[in-house]
Amino acid sequence: MKMTLVEAVDLALARAMTEDENVVILGEDVGRNGGVFRATVGLRERFGPRRVLDTPLAESLIAGLAVGMSSQGLRPVAEIQFLGFIYAAMEHLISHAARFRNRTRGRLSCPLTLRTPFGAGIRAPEHHSESTEALLAHIPGLKIVAASSPRTAYGLLLSAIRDPDPVIVLEPERLYRGLREDVEDHGAGIPLVECLVWRPGRDITLISWGAMVQDCLTAADQLANEGIDCEVMDVATLRPLDMQSLLTSVALTGRCVIVQEAVRSGGFASELSARLGEAAFYALKAPILRVSPPDIIVPYSRLEQAYLPQVADILIAVRQCMEASR
Asked: Which part of the chain is the Transketolase-like pyrimidine-binding domain (predicted)?
């Protein structure tokens, strides 16, 4: 049936809790209120208050509880209300969750899932609109995934919950109710080391993740009318990264534009550009281009739309890349 991304998240959580009684949910307002975006609505009534726990407004406490739960045989799914609130939880994620397996030489793992909305698009203050996924992707021991549609949200979340190691699941908040598609509750996860090809193409590779994947698809449709055939790649799992799929695509097309919602400096697009430049240099027909917002804090309210990369920006970058290769 057709559903929104937030409904797909709720569906995946319900399946995971039905399959495994050790799966528990915790976070601010996830119980009685069903979450700030309603991603956990109905779960407390269905599975009870011992498995869906409301916590205080304390991200450090949420992360610490989740680490402790995972060390005692549970599979906690913790929610941080917005990515901009995760910084207080980073001590537990970096110093403990990410290091359990290495610290104990494989005797212990940390099957923790941390869900958080990311990105802009709802005209909220800056802490509610950040895309700092590059900070998380820099940490060895953490797995980072980013949903780009209801179906990918369902599959990635199920795989994250079943994984023996800590996984951060990024959910693009402007797609929570901005996109509907058919989602089947089949219980199949999406492997956590797999780029997704949304659209095959031969002329240029468009790489993105999260909400920007949908903008890339819109741009690709428009560019097709100009005779430019775009391959649209969804990174999906930022860490561990399926670099081979990206290299295969760029080797085929010889051109690449990377689109991110994060600011340009130090962003994940820079990492991808460097690695593609190193490994696919002789296949490139033009320089790799990046599309991103300016290096400023996300502006509030109506200025937010002007801050975000637009489909028009992607079109300009692709045309520049095509022209440079002639």
From this structure: 3-178
Q: In the structure, what pLDDT confidence band is assigned to residue 122 with cuts at 50, 70 and 90? A: confident
Q: Kindly name the residue from 92, 96, 127, 128 that is annotated as catalytic.
A: 128
Taking residues 53-73, report their average pLDDT.
97
Angle between helical axes of 311-324 and 212-224 (0-180°, round to 10): 60
128 labelled catalytic: yes
For residue 304, pLDDT over 70 is answered with: yes
| Domain hosting residue 254, numbered range | 196-324
Q: Is 250 contained in some domain?
A: yes
* pLDDT (mean) for 103-125: 92
Long-range pairs for 39-43 at CB < 8 Å and ≥24 separation?
39/6, 39/9, 39/10, 39/13, 39/79, 39/115, 39/171, 39/176, 40/10, 40/13, 40/79, 41/10, 42/10, 42/14, 43/10, 43/13, 43/14, 43/17
Residues 51 and 159 in one domain: yes
Residue 188 is assigned to a structural domain of this protein: no
Q: Does 132 share its domain with 203? A: no
